[in-house]
Amino acid sequence: MFESSYHLVLRYCYRRVGDVEHARELTQETFIVAWRRRGDMSTVPVSWLYGVARRVLADHWRAGRARPVTVPLADTLDACGLDGSFDVVELAQDLRGAFRRLSESDREVLRLVTWENLDLAGVAQALDCGRAAAAVRLFRARQRLARLLDAPAAAESTRRSRAPVRGGTR
Question: By C-alpha distance, which of 147, 119, 159 is closest to 135?
Fold first, then answer.
């Protein structure tokens, strides 16, 4: 289990704390907790380990030992395989802004699906909830993100429509 999952859990922790050494410490703590609770492990160990890591991170955040971080925009564009053109940068900035305005639980369910490539069963296991609850949480998180992304576009189109018209008469 350790050999096949270590780098996945390390990446999971790193994406949330932004420091390699701190992520390694959190990963080690995750595997210590996992070893103690190995009797609780299900048939999908990686999803279960993400759930353990999520709780380890939450304990550290509550204790003030770690804080969630945001990934720099350039890293986000590189990770997505996008170039740095103006439209792409503007879209990425809108997405990051909307993502930050989501609740932590919405961000986590979206991260598990997009960053960690978990299916609904894996998300349910990582979040310690049923598959139906995970599906509802994912659906609602996607809806809220879409609303937040539509809000700036709606505001921009309203600003444009209120702009004075220059030129001749009709």
Answer: 119
